[in-house]
Amino acid sequence: MSSTSMYTRALVVVAVALSLCFATVALPVFDSQYTEDCMTRSFSQETIKPGFEIPHDGVHLHSFRSASEGIFHTEVSDVLRDDRVLILGVPFAMETSYLADLKYWAKELKQVRRQLGLDHVFVVIAGNPYEANAMHESESLNGEPIDSIMSFWSDSDMQIAKRLGMVYDARPDGLGITSLRYAVLVDHFDVKYVASEPHHSIDAVAFRNLFDAIQDLITSGAIPPQLPRGHDEL
User: Which Gene3D superfamilies match (predicted)?
Assistant: First the structure.
């Protein structure tokens, strides 16, 4: 065997070895096993956790932007693409306290986006698309550069809340069945961090607590640092 042939074979062996070292193992898609009694509307579910792939195929987000465009629907897999995305679940639209917290995201997002390597932040409301649009155009957020990185969507059919195991029974408070207030960090479809709490609390998913938690994941090496998509435009 010639030295050139041996050299070529050695390169192939090295390339295969490197590909095996850096190959990512596909995580199982999360199944919340959500079930609901159609008479009492009582339900059972498992809540999503890190170590799973977020359910995305066949799950849709809904939005309304203008009378001419009307309501449109997009599959979660198309929205997430292959990015690092923070999903913020909101049980009710137009909450004054949470709008104030979102304003922190809007104000700090350009800097935070670099530090956390976020490609996008999606605010998903357990309400109709018109409520999502109302939040998008809220006076509390007007004037902030949110369009390019933060977008507002509706989970009007509660499919996302059900698939994530984030449904919440607020009937004792006279507020019906809605979603928990939640945050899910997704990195290339893999769930890296989850926080949730009832509607009457803004603690675990508050701006500062989420920022610190995600920063800790990067510092510890649980998720790699990265520059967000389109970072040169920030």
Answer: Glutaredoxin (3.40.30.10)
